[in-house]
Amino acid sequence: MAKTDTYTDNKRKVDVRAANMSAAKAVADAVRTSLGPRGMDKMVVNGNGDVTITNDGATILKLMEVSSPAAKMLVELSRSQDINAGDGTTSVTVLAGALLNKCIQLIGKGVHPTVISDAMNLASDKAVEILTSLAIPVDLNDREALIKSATTSLSSKVVAQHSSLLAPIAVDCVLRIAEDCRKLTTQVQRADGYRVTQAGASVSGKMVDLRDVRIIKKLGDTVDATEFVEGLVFDQKATKSAGGPTKVKGAKIALIQFCVSPPKTDLENNVVLSDYAAMDRLLKEERNYILGMVKKIKASGCNVLLVQKSILRDATTELSLHYLAKAKILVVRDIERDEIEFISKTLNLLPIAHIDNMKPEKLGVADLVEEVSIGVSRIVKVTGIPNMGRTATVIVRGSNKLVLEEADRSLHDALCVIRCLVQRPFLIAGGGAPEIELSRQLREWAKTLPGMEQYCVKAFAEAMEVIPYTLAENAGLNPIQIVTELKNHHAKGCLHHGINVRKGTVTNILDENVVQPLQVSTSAVTLATECVRMILKIDDIVMTR
Description:
Helix content is 45%, strand content 17%. It is of the alpha+beta class. Helix 1 runs antiparallel to helix 4, helix 4 packs antiparallel against helix 13 and helix 5 packs across helix 13 (451-463).
């Protein structure tokens, strides 16, 4: 064989690979201390001096300024986990860092990156299989089991002490908006006769779209004052500059997308008035035009008017508000365009694009619409909506902006966890129990594999121990002692033993109600492996202009 045909790893390739892995590992180490219920929080300060205090891996990485292309892949990885499962964003990054560490060691021993990559893929598939075998099915009507899962998700957050309030709110929201989609085919017949569930399809036959949950953040009071609202809440206050009503019983609600104001000329056009008579005529015409509109609105039976925000001209004028107030119509202005669908779905009404379409059948109905004060601001609450759409509204409170933002993020994580459970109703233990069991079973399985694959799968199994090790480390326990004790329990067949951070020992974690959805763990393992395999395969960086 000619000398040029042999594969040689030159210095540049080695350097590029090492640089990529070190950069990605540095990012993973940065968030490692924020893993688990005893994890630390990070204070992220941007160039403008805006401060964010958070424990959420995806948020930390999103706000960090990362220059290395390989490290950016870890930022994308935590985002993928956030979209896919909603929780476990720190775990997935720490796991990827541990796998990269093992890859560096294997490459140092002379194992080819492609061999490592293929073995990792095998190990990842086997890991998902093992995790699925450990899963406990959960009944979606068992509200307590769902609340336990949401509480585990909230236990590592800044607002952990309020989890007894936020967890039930998250469960109620998701169960409220979960739609039956059993009509959709989620199973496919395979060639060998098996029926398989499509990836990403809902196993339970329910579908959850979190856009149907509206979270309104209001400053003032503590997180304890957070509430789940049976109805609809508008962040805007009622317009009462002309003395209009602020409370309407037996409301008939219209959502309009046109302006209650006199028409404007096109841009760059002017109307020139030469005498006072013409000016009077113009003002009179304007008044008649608005009066005509208000009469049509009143004739449809409407007594609450929601007006969409307008850019080209004023949605309402002082004159139109005066007439609407005389007609005893409550007006809420500046409804954002992206809220239209949510409002229509909640109130079972149709948005009206032109004054001629003001028909009684297009209106929504509610028992009560009133303006209430919350903290320093005022909101409009709509309650008693008959056959209300599948939507939910939560008002989150917080004593300052940082707590408020973090409460919002934590609630979103809890909602995502319940969504995972609704789509795949299986729970596994938390507290590092599944990772140690994975590590043990993968080691056993590695013994049956030939050649280099055995070493690589063993390395994968060792990398899994980083989660319980980090949990113990962050809780101020002795990680080596705790992980060894954990391995002993699992070797004796105690599958659900994990690290009890509160007591500082190893106990059966299911008795402590520390549970998490299966989807969070399987998603973390598959995504971390995929990311590591991609970084592993890069052997050169080419700069282009």
